[in-house]
Amino acid sequence: MTPDTLFQSLWEDYIHRLCPSAAKVHQLLEEDEALINDHIALRTFNLAPIGLDVLAIPFINLGYKACGDYVFESKKLVAKHFEHPDPKQPKVFISELKVDECSPELQDIVGKLAAQVHAQQMTGDTFLFSGRQWELSYQDYKTLAKESEYAGWLAAHGFGANHFTVSVNQLKAFDEVKAVNEHLRQNGFTINEAGGEVKGSPDVLLEQSSTMADKVSVDFSDTKASIPGGFYEFAKRYPQSNGELYPGFVAASADKIFESTDSK
Question: Would you call the peptide bond into 49 cis, given omega within 30 degrees of 0 as the criterion?
Fold first, then answer.
């Protein structure tokens, strides 16, 4: 695959399985040119054979390089972001849950999920948008989500982009993240207000916001239920002292963006 074909496959999975409302967001924001995707985000557990480093391999094979490390202590997460030499390609943000720091009950459930995955399933690149690779009961989902919304979401949905991100810098009709939020609100979307509707500031060179996740139907081993799926993010980057736009992420802001998939 090329970067373009990989992101197209991730996009197709995202809009059909995780965030059907993304098509409406496109309709509301697209102008003369196609929307620029600032970055995508992927989630995983820090267990073999599905850890962060495994998810990174297909991107590294396409020329991506690791550019930043992040820690989210309260959520028991770590993350890395990856950039391509071609700045037009989206950045990739991959996080993983530190399962060993969670309760014995969560460790037991997640350990059994990871044990259902064989290493050969995690080769190539199609696994990145392959969905759930394990059987999961609705009760186990609820148990995980009660302790960690992240763990519940990942266990239920498996592999796929939990969000794509519109680059606000390219928009002509809106030059502020807050204005994008208001436009979306007027069209029926709910904005994630955890930590404020706009996370970050010009001082940290990045502003972000996001919709709250779509509710999507998921087939569990014992029932079908509607739970939070994917969401859409909006990012505005500010120039560094060298004049180039800041390429990284701000942990304090990303921490609140994770809450876009909260069910509370």
Answer: yes
What are the pLDDT digits (tens) for 152-188? Answer: 999 999 999 999 999 999 999 999 999 999 999 999 9
Residues 249, 38: contact at Cβ < 8 Å? no
Nearest alpha carbon to residue 253 among 187, 192, 171: 192
Distance of CA 181 to the CA centre of its chain: 19
Distance CA 120, CA 50 (A): 11
Pairing of strands 163-167, 199-201: unpaired
Is the distance from CB of 214 to CB of 18 less than 8 angstroms? yes
> At which residue do the structure tokens 């991506």 appear?
64
Distance CA 110, CA 105 (A): 9
CA 242 to chain centre: 29
* Amino acid code (one letter) for 86: D
Closest CA to 41 of 166, 165, 216: 165
Q: What is the pTM of this model?
A: 0.97
- Cα first-last separation, the chain: 38
Q: How far is residue 80's CA from residue 95's CA, in Å, rounded to a whole number?
A: 6
